């Protein structure tokens, strides 16, 4: 005869939460106080470990300046959240929060300017699943993101940059060493400012995959 052991639900929940927290990858994120830099997922462009939780805190102490984030190589549908704060010590100790939203590559953002002293990027994923941009033949094995930021005078214009969408999903958007210029670096066999030309679209050679007098790009 067997005796059924009663296991309190509350204790079970605590055990599961603690196990998840102890196995979560957190060797990422950090405080960023330089006037420009790069933020990327661990192992980019390869897979990042899961579960994972990363917080990047960009600190801009000068009220005459703003933080601009450029989504140069961004391949996520979800799990990437932006918030700005008047004061920030950690996720439990802060003042003046303004949640800016969750960034999805389908929204085709190229940049975002924020004006409070602290910008927090929170990246939290339990399982990778179907959360990445995928394009036939290309971008099948790229994970996460590799983006840039800069802290500049409030009067400075946002730079003209690019993104996966701007590069026709046929190249990567890359920054110059000083983060002042951005361009599309095309995959093999593709060319043009936006990687819009290739094996099936080359006006100089009379190649046009479009019908009804459409123009390929």
UniProtKB/TrEMBL annotation:
Disulfide bond residue pairs: 167-184, 186-195
Pfam families: CUB (PF00431)
Presence of the UniProt keyword Signal in the record: yes
Keywords: Disulfide bond, EGF-like domain, Signal
Signal peptide from the UniProt entry: 1-23
Positions of the EGF-like domain: 158-196
InterPro entries per UniProt: CUB_dom, EGF, Sperma_CUB_dom_sf
Domain CUB: 28-152
Domain of life: Eukaryota
Coiled-coil blocks: none
Name by which UniProt lists this protein: Uncharacterized protein
């Amino acid at each position: 005869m067997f005796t059924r052991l009663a296991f309190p639900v509350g204790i079970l929940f605590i055990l599961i939460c603690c196990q998840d927290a102890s196995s979560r990858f957190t060797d990422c994120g950090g405080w960023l106080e330089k006037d420009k830099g790069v933020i990327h997922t661990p192992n980019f462009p390869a897979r990042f470990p899961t579960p994972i939780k990363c917080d990047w805190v960009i600190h801009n102490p000068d009220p005459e300046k703003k933080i601009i984030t450029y989504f140069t190589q961004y391949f996520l549908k979800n799990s990437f959240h932006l918030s700005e704060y008047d004061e920030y010590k950690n996720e439990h100790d802060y003042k003046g929060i303004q949640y800016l939203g969750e960034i999805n590559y389908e929204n085709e953002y190229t940049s975002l300017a924020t004006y409070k002293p602290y910008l927090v990027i929170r990246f939290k994923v339990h399982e990778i699943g179907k959360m990445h941009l995928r394009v036939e033949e290309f971008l099948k094995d790229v994970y996460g993101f590799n983006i840039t930021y800069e802290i500049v005078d409030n009067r400075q214009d946002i730079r003209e940059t690019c993104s996966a969408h701007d590069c026709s999903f046929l190249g990567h958007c890359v920054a110059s060493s000083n983060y002042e210029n951005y361009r599309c670096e095309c995959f093999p066999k593709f060319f043009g400012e936006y990687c819009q030309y290739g094996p099936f679209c080359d006006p100089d050679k009379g190649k046009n995959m479009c019908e009804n007098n459409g123009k390929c790009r």
